Amino acid sequence: MITSTPPLDLLSPGFIEDPVPMIDRMYAESPIFFDPRLHAWMIGGLDDTKVLAKEPRLSAQRKGYVTALVPPEFKERATPLADWYGEWMVMRDGADHRRLRQLAAHAFTPRNIERLQARMLEVIDSAIDAALARGEMEVLGELAFPLPRTVICEMVGIPEADMALLSEWNPTITNILGATLTSSEIIDRVTLARTQIHEYFTRLIAERRRAPREGEILTSLVQAIDGEDSLTEDEIIDLVVFIMVGAYDTTAYLISNGLYLLLQHPEQLAAVKADPRKIDGWIEETLRCEPSITINTRTVIEGFDYKGHRFEPGQMAYFLPQVANRDPEYFPDPNRFDVDRHNAGDHTSFGFGAHFCIGAPLARMEARLAFQRLIARTRRLALPEQEFKRAPSMVIRALQTLRIEVS
């Protein structure tokens, strides 16, 4: 339990700007502690994460965290949005989760991912062409978001003419995942986006029933309605939205966070330039140091004891990749960014167990191709002077903008 300032304060602006001092303090004082403000246990160390990730008395049905910070006067209006999120695959347990995951996995087969490579390279090279012509790039707007947006549309079967809808919907829906339903205006925007998404995909599902398209996930899910493994229309829409959201922001921030980290370390940049085989190490070390998702939550459904702590039903457990990924017992000099770190891939940034991120291979491929082309096609990559502002979320680790110089 904590009786004063918690060693790691998820609600503090300081955590968003620079979490490292709090992470160091948490390891020094309390690798596990309870924060009564969030009604949640904070789980830090990598060993504890691995053990508790397998704990059957912790459930993925955890929509309570979505409304944990909602002001009381908005709780009633925010509850339907949390309930909707509660129907998504990532909020399911056991056989129910396995069934939906197996269907969603069709979109992420090695064959389907490989099929998208040529399209990825088109988007990447187009962004680099424009940047070289100007000598600069705003990474998020010109590369990091357009790349996964294009990939998602290709995978799901969203027409290119409707691609801009993802740019409108995804940041809005992310307010649910990021637990930022904190004002009437935000709740209104998210509610409207949910209605628009439902209407849009209801129409698109009807089209696919009339005219199926080979190789896209929407058609495969629609065809499953009439097969042995039946899906309702709402389940199809929820799966598609999960893929849209899950494969969008996280990949964009992997790319932008990776460039931010590497370009802050000229010696690491020089090492990657000299040996592009180090790009995989660059990706894994980015995932370790700056994970796009900083919290992975569970709900206690049955009381149990762990290392002298009593986990009670109804409490939350917050797994913290940023903390586990800097465990000094596993990662020597954990706050150092090092593309040659031999075990960087032991991070927890893609989750764990049955809920390990289904899109991890796709995210890695998108980042790898983007980094490969930037390294191969530029003589110089640099960070100009700028303010590095973070997105105001305790759940998402993201820069709001990132400008780089290229030549």
Radius of gyration, in Å, reads 21 Å
CATH architecture: Orthogonal Bundle
CATH class wording: Mainly Alpha
Taking strands numbered 1, 2, ... along the chain, how are they ordered across the largest sheet?
1-2-8-5-3
Helix and strand sequence: HHEEHEHHHHEHHHHHHHHHEEEEHHEE
Question: What would you note in describing this structure?
Answer:
- With 407 residues, the chain is an alpha+beta fold.
- The protein has a single domain, classed as Orthogonal Bundle (Cytochrome p450).
- It is 51% helix and 8% strand.
- It is globular.
- It starts with 12 loop residues before the first helix and ends with a strand.
- The mean pLDDT is 91.
Structure summary:
This protein is an alpha+beta fold. The protein has a single domain, classed as Cytochrome p450.
Features:
407 residues; three-stranded antiparallel sheet; 18 helices; 10 strands; 51% helix
Chain-wise SSE layout:
Layout: H1 13-17, H2 20-29, E1 32-35, E2 40-43, H3 46-52, E3 58-59, H4 75-85, H5 94-104, H6 110-115, H7 117-134, E4 136-138, H8 139-144, H9 146-156, H10 164-177, H11 184-210, H12 217-225, H13 233-246, H14 249-263, H15 266-274, H16 279-289, E5 296-300, E6 304-306, E7 309-311, E8 316-319, H17 321-324, H18 360-377, E9 381-382, E10 403-406
Parallel strand pairs: 2-8
Antiparallel strand pairs: 1-2, 3-5, 4-10, 5-8, 6-7, 9-10
